[in-house]
Amino acid sequence: MKVVKKKDLERLNEELRGIEGVATALGTHTSTGIPDDEKKINQRRKIFGSNTYKKPRPKGFFRAVYRPLDEFAILSDYVNVVAAVILFVAAYGIGSCMPSSARKSKAIISGDEIEVLRGGESKKVSKSEIVVGDVVCLKIGDEVPADGLFLRGNNPQLEERDSEISGRAVQVVNEENPFLFSGSQVVDGYGGCQMMVTSVGMKAKWCKMMRKPSCGSSDEKIDTVEDQVYNLTCSIRNKVGLPIALLATAFITVVVVIPESLRLGVALTTFYSKKRLMADMEMVSDTSVSRCETMGSVTTICTSKTGILTMNRMEVKEFYLGEHSVLEKEAYLTNASTHVKNLLKEGIALNTSPSTPTDKAILSWAVRVLDMDMEVKCRCLVLRPDHRDDEAALNINSQKKKRSGVLMKREVDNTVHVHWKGEAEAILEMCSSYYDNSISRNPIDLDDEQKVKFRRIVQHMTERSLQCIAFAHNQVEPVDGRHTLKEDGLVLLGLVGIKDPCRPKMKAAMKDCQNAGVDVKMFTSDNISSAEDIARECGILLDTDDQEGAVITGEAFRNYSEDERMEKVDKIQVMANSSANDKLLMVKTLKKKDGIVAVSGNNSNDVLALLEADVGISMGNKAGTDVVKKVSNIVILDDNFASVARLLKSSICIYNNAQKFIQFQLTLNLAALAIIFISAACAGEIPLDSTGVLWLNLIVNTLASLALATERPTEEPIKRQPVGRKEPLISNIMLRNLLGQVVYQIVVVLTLLFKVKSVSKKRNTLIFSAFLLCQVFNEFNARNLESIENVFKGIHRDIAFLVCTGITISAQVLFMQLYSHQEDGYFVMLNLWHWGICFGFAIISWPIDWIVKCIPVPKKPLVNYLSDTFKVVAQFGMKK
Q1: SS3 letters for 434-447?
Q2: What pLDDT digit, counting tens, does each position of 411-431 carry?
Q3: Neighbour-count burial for 223-251, b at 16+ CB within 10 Å, e otherwise
Q4: pTM across the whole model
């Protein structure tokens, strides 16, 4: 309903005759719900829709193979066409549908049942079975399953998913704000509440955010490489005057081997690495496997504080009676009077519920230190402000003033008292006296000078990231026979300082991110002082950092001009008092600067930023809500930022492994392409037939992708700059390495082609075997892209690499033995001397690689020049 989505209270009351009018229009009752009739429920589902979110249909294997069936390269000759079709179609199909299969493996652990009223009876149903008109019963901690209207309840507080809300609880009052939205969470409210469902599934308000198109991934970079190679090939194929018969294998190599082998190899590399990552870490990934690879190229990680950097497990660290700290039990028992002890127990027991981490910490501390027991509740009767004793208990909450009060009557003497609890600044303004640490039961006047002293205590706690809560009390006398919730003239009972401690190993995790060149920024709704302290404790801010501009408020960032934001965003490390819009604005600004941004969040306040980020990471155990899990790409199950740092390290390894395979793959195919063209033009024959090329693709590339994908991240610190948004997948270093090997392999093959005085079949066999073994030994060179360090470093731990290499060599020897026995075969059997020559040429590729890696490369990507060249040649071919 548009009225609910727009929060149009005036139209709700005037045109629709209020909530009762809406209930009548929907054929439901606000007290008994819809009839419990399965036929009518199904009819509602057909009319209004189901409470499910329809994701795009994943691409299956047979749908993925449709495109390659139209390629001209599979129209090769006779037996080879069958092998080409099978290999080509399988490569494209597996590479395309593997990410879709990964989506199906997602399993988010969450409560899926909720209580509804149907036919006047309460029953548990799945959230997906809720229909329009249902009356849903919500309790503290429940997530609102659909959009709807508030019916009844004791002033529940909801944390809403709304771009205009800063993430704190929002009081829902029937007369003023009866609108509830899917994804909101009930965080407070005695006895829960009831709502009437008005919109479900795709018609709910939050689904608009879910429809945001996904960001590009490395698949787009791979497709760009494919398209450029394809266009160049087509122009050469159509315009070069060499016999088509001699160039047929070259076209197969370019059009079949390069694009689809790239897709298959990268898919195998990322998919295998992601599966291993899921086994090593408590993580579940949602969308495509490329998200893990994208995580390896992020430049900035923006993270929320509570539950990710901190434990989300509050602890009482300070307790003040008057101006003196009496945190320990012995000090409390010695310095506090019995009267003050009883008042504190009474106020905490009646005005604190275990619905939030803060209240849980206070209750736990009260039981442990104050010796509080819950029998206090039995000795008191909680009243409503109008003194209707027959009503249920009530907490009067005021979000704006961040305080809560309770009116109660003691059964012993029938006296009525008021207890208040809340943020210290708000409670201090309500007090006119206080109790000190003496055994006297008489309060002391709280003058302005004394208030200044208390404010200093509060400020001191705030500077140490402590949340300061104050307790106050007073006896209430009836006015005109009625008791009211007194809000002034109170007596201050005490101050407690509560802290959410940092998770262990947080500084080490931040150090890993900083070593990788990744900037970590923290979002929090805390004030600047608390935010700065927790950022230092976690390692986001260092003592050596220049603090000017590093810590700001969300409002300050919001009020900057766009140019100022672009100039200062890199300097910002902490954003305090931040809202959902502030987080979104930060992510958009970072992306405008060509950064690749990851966001980690765990509540509905993070949804917009998660959707905008290149990689959305949510916490999936205790901290994360269902809504956040639905919009994120990766779910971390242990709710710990240290796991995000581990994910970064592993994802960088995945990205590097993919680059290693691409370098290896392009080396093989570019060398094969050059050899075929040169030999066809100069010698009138091709030393590599289509069967040999397909064998290289089937055995060498597939096993190489597995061999290079098995390399795990080391325990050594990551020391490399992150990849920017516009950085090409094929770096200058990769081009240098592969061109060096391509040149060497061309020299080897042409030397054998023109210098070996032997029959054609033996020469071709030598060329093919030497070329294949060069690829195998080049796998070792690909293990280290950048440095000239030993390429065998850590190879004894990489058993899979050694196994795949051994299988490749064994398969090649076996292939040659079997294929050479055919009468019309292309190859002949080799003796040990010939094999020695082949292995000798292959081993020389190692020192060649060492020499090539000593050559410096420019910072500006050379791929940009190659891309322009491809386009010019392709356009020239089209014009001709």
Answers
A1: ECCCCCCCCCEECC
A2: 778 888 999 998 888 899 999
A3: eebbebbbbbbbbbbeeeeeeeebbbbbb
A4: 0.67
Nearest-angstrom CA–CA distance, 722 and 516: 7
Domains 2-58+111-204 and 316-494 share a fold: no
pLDDT value for 566: 92
Closest by CA position to 713, among listed 299, 303, 301, 295 = 295
What CATH architecture applies to the domain 65-98+238-293+646-868?
Answer: Up-down Bundle (1.20)
Widest CA span of the chain, in angstroms? 121
Residue 846 reports pLDDT greater than 80: yes
**Taking the domains of the chain in order of start, what are their residue ranges?**
2-58+111-204, 65-98+238-293+646-868, 316-494
Stronger pLDDT, 152 or 239, i.e. the higher one: 152
Q: How far is CA 827 from the centre of its chain?
A: 53
Using CB atoms within 10 A of its CB, is residue 368 exposed (0-12), middle (13-18) or buried (19+)? exposed
Beta bridge partners of 491: 433, 473
d(CA 211, CA 346): 50
Q: Which two tokens stand for residue 672?
A: 């094969």
Band of residue 675 on the pLDDT scale cut at 50, 70, 90: confident
CA distance 556 to 552: 7
Structure tokens at 171: 């009081």
Mean pLDDT of 578-604: 89
pLDDT at residue 438 is higher than 60: yes
* Length of the chain (residues): 880
Whole-number Cα distances in Å, 271 to 263, 440, 505, 803? 12, 71, 29, 19
| Contacts for 85-92: CB closer than 8 Å, 24+ residues apart | 87/256, 87/260, 87/694, 87/697, 87/698, 88/256, 88/260, 89/65, 90/65, 90/264, 91/260, 91/261, 91/263, 91/264, 92/64, 92/65, 92/67, 92/68, 92/260, 92/263, 92/264
First to last CA, the chain: 60
**DSSP string of 810-855?**
HHHHHHHHHHTTSTT-S-----HHHHHHHHHHHHTHHHHHHHHTTS
Average pLDDT estimate for 826-851: 86
Neighbouring residues of 775: CB distance < 8 A, sequence distance ≥ 6: 664, 667, 668, 696, 700, 704
Over residues 711-767, the pLDDT tens digits come to 777 666 566 677 767 777 788 888 899 999 999 999 998 888 877 766 567 787 888
Q: Which two tokens stand for residue 16?
A: 């629709």
The phi and psi torsions of 395 (rounded to 5 degrees) equal -105, 125
Quick one: tokens of 348? 């905490």
Do 30 and 17 meet the contact criterion of CB atoms below 8 Å apart? no
> What CATH code is assigned to 2-58+111-204?
2.70.150.10
Rounded Cα gap, residues 731 and 668, in angstroms: 17
Q: Kindly provide the b/e burial profile for residues 640-650, where b requires at least 16 CB atoms within 10 angstroms of the residue's own CB.
A: bbbbbbbbbbb
Crossing angle, helix 760-782 and helix 702-709, to 10 degrees? Answer: 20
105 — pLDDT class (breaks 50, 70, 90):
very low
| Fold of the CATH domain 316-494 | Calcium-transporting ATPase, cytoplasmic domain N (3.40.1110)
Alpha helix stretches (DSSP H) within 492-606: 506-515, 528-538, 554-559, 562-568, 580-592
Amino acid at 149: L
Cβ atoms 579, 167 nearer than 8 A: yes
Question: How wide is the angle at C-alpha 614 spanned by C-alphas 608 and 618, nearest 5°?
Answer: 60
What is the structure's pLDDT at 844? 93
